[in-house]
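Let's study a protein:

===
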Amino acid sequence: MKITLLGSCSGTEPFPNRHHTSWLLESDSGDIDVFDAGECCSHTAHVNGIDLLKIRNVFISHSHMDHVGGLLNLLWTQMKLSSVRKLPAPSVDLYLPEPELGRPILSILDLSEFKSSCMKVGIREIHAGEIFAASGIRVEALPNRHLGGIRPSFSFLVEAGKRRIVYSGDVTSWRELIPFFSAPCDILLMESGHHVPSKTAAELREAGIEIGKLVFLHHGRRLLDHYEEEIEAVKAVYDRPFLAAEDGMVIPL
C-alpha cells in the first residue's frame, strides 16, 4: 500500500516541475482512490507507472481550480487507455462537494471524441461523516471553513486497515482537523499554501498531536520561493518525521 503525490502546488502562478494538488492511495489489492485532481494529475500518474484504469473513486475536497482542473482530462485519459487497450468501459465514482461540479465536466466530454457514455461515471455528493467503505478502505469527510460557508469544502480521514491518513484539503487552521485526531494518525497530509509551515509544525508538536509522518503539500509562494529556509525553520521546531511534497513522490504505508 502506498501514497503517490501527483501534484504539490497550490493555486499560485505556475511553478517549474510542480502541478496543482492531487494524490492517490494505491491499496494492496491494486484499487486506486484519488484525492483532488489538480491539473496534470493523470499525466503524472501515468508516466510514473500507475494504471489509471484501476482508479475506482475520485474525492474532491472543494471546487477551486487547483483541486479540480485535471478531473476532466483524468476521465478522458481513462477512456483513451481503455480504447487503446480494447478493454471494457472504465467505471469511476466522483465524490463531489457539489453535484453541479460534475455536470459541465460530462458535458464537455460529450463534445470530445470520447463521450461521457463511453464510461460509467457515478456522481455522489459529499456529506459529513462516512462517505465510502469497501475493500478495507474507509473514507470520512469533515466540513471545514476554507470557503467561509459560501460553498462546501471538506477534509478527509482515510482508514486503510490499521493505518489512518488525514488529508487537510484547504483549511483556515489545522485545528479544524481535531475531530480526526481522536486516535493517532500515520500520515497527515497538511496544506502549506495558506499557512506558515514552521508555525503549523510547532503548534502540532505543542498540542501533542500523534502523527507518524507530517507531509506538507499544496505549497504556496512562501515555501516555493524560500524552500531551504522554510524547511530549516520546520526542522528547528519539529523533531519528528516530516516531508515537503514533490510531484511524483511515493510514500510507502
